[in-house]
Amino acid sequence: MNLHEYQGKEILNSFGVRIQRGRIAHNHKEAVDVAKQLATETETGTGWWVIKAQVHAGGRGKGGGVKLAKNLAEVESISQDIIGMMLVTPQTPPEGKKVNQVLIAEDVYYPGDNEPEEYYMSVLLNRETGRNMIMYSTEGGVDIETVAEETPHLIYTEEIDPALGLLGFQARKIAFNLGLSGGALKEMVKFVSALYTAFVKSDSTMFEINPVLKTSDDKILAVDAKVSLDDSALYRHKDYAEMRDLREETPIEVESRAEGLNYVDLEGNVGCMVNGAGLAMATMDLIKQAGGEPANFLDVGGTADAKRVEAAFRIILKDTNVKAILVNIFGGIVRCDRVAQGVVDAYTNMGDAINVPIIVRLQGTNAKEAKELIDKSGMEIISATEFQEAADKVQEVLA
Ligand code: GDP
Ligand code: MN
């Protein structure tokens, strides 16, 4: 689950990571109130504010979603411009993302501070070694993608032993590699240590802090925060679970979660309806092997009755790239003929809504009865018994 910048910062701050402080506002009047309040509390600020669009996408600065306000009138007018706009950045869909709220933050870039130091820092899992790592660079700021492409040697990596955690010498090495000494080095060591603790304790899958800022008086703080939480760990973070912003998720994902279906949107054109995550993955492999591309991962779970099958069909068909649907069900506890009946009923209920060929493979308890049921239904449902056969039939209808 992805968070807004302001939510990510809240979590960081709760673990002692210094942040550029701010408050959220939903309209320009609120923005002014928040700005006034903030001015009485800030310790690092210049007396100016920065207005930041809150959407789940990076590159906001370049798209006009981050603006400096030097007085309350500007806070009001800039907030009015940004709230409600469709913000287009390299990371949004072409039409942009609607901005529902802005973060009013203290301006932490001191005037006269000609070269504020902006670093890049992220924490994530190295899947090859199975260990967390901190990636960092002196070349932070809005062009980190270019740095990664053209000068990758400027991005350092520090891997962390899961049993030992981040060790003191590692935090010092990071600060040193960032070119710091004296008070700034100490501040950076504190920052990195708190950041790593926050990552582990919050069950996050990714932190990206870009930029981490060093002010001329040697404060180190997170100016931006991109935080992704592990969905499977949300049960032990009820307060984080409430941070989910449904407006930022695709309607298909929201609907499938409401239906209790496990759905992941993919790029291909073969819709998949499968029971069990392992079988779903095997099904996607098989589709690929046969030369196709899965349009989604969909685990309908244990109870594949007509109602559930219908919900799954409706969700798969929302993706207009889908040109065929493969239903691959293993009947263990759930009997195949019941699933087959579910497919037939759903097909009948949905009528013209189903406008692509459906290939059904049912294996396991009562598979034979299931196949008969489908073959006899007189519907345009193609049945298959073997795994490979099903994948080949998908390719046939697509050809
Ligand atoms: P992103 O573009 O979505 O990554 O949003 P960021 O939060 O990283 O902000 C983009 C850029 O705006 C930063 O790299 C800074 O250069 C600038 N910026 C952010 N906060 C401030 C601020 O308080 N004062 C000034 N002057 N610039 C800021
Ligand atoms: Mn950023």
State the CATH class of the largest domain.
Alpha Beta
The portion of residues assigned to helices is 25-40%
* Arithmetic mean of pLDDT: 92
The assigned CATH architecture of the largest domain is 2-Layer Sandwich
User: Which topology of the largest domain does CATH recognise?
Assistant: D-amino Acid Aminotransferase, Chain A, domain 1
Which spans have pLDDT < 50 for at least 5 consecutive residues?
A: none
What is the makeup of the main sheet?
A: 6 strands, antiparallel
Number of strands: 18
Q: What would CATH call the homologous superfamily of the largest domain?
A: ATP-grasp fold, B domain
Instruction: Output the structural class.
Output: alpha+beta
Indicate the multimeric state: single chain
Description:
The protein is of the alpha+beta class. The chain has 3 domains: 1-19 and 112-248, D-amino Acid Aminotransferase, Chain A, domain 1 (2-Layer Sandwich), CATH 3.30.470; 21-107, ATP-grasp fold, A domain (Dna Ligase, domain 1), CATH 3.30.1490; 250-398, Succinyl-CoA synthetase domains (Rossmann fold). Helix content is 36%, strand content 24%. The chain contains 13 helices and 18 strands. The chain has helices at residues 5-14, 28-39, 72-82, 144-150, 168-177, 182-201, 238-241, 251-258, 277-289, 306-318, 336-350, 367-376, 387-398; strands spanning 22-25, 49-53, 66-69, 86-87, 97-98, 102-106, 117-126, 131-137, 155-159, 204-214, 220-222, 226-229, 262-265, 270-274, 296-299, 324-331, 358-364, 381-384. The strands form 5 sheets. Strands 7, 8, 9, 10, 11 and 12 form a 6-stranded antiparallel sheet that branches. The chain has a 4-stranded antiparallel sheet with strand order 1-6-2-3, with helices on one face. Strands 14-16-17-18 form a 4-stranded parallel sheet, sandwiched between helices. It is elongated. The model has no long low-confidence stretch (mean pLDDT 92). Guanosine-5'-diphosphate binds at residues 20, 50, 52, 58-61, 66, 68, 105, 107-109, 141-142, 210-211, 223-224.
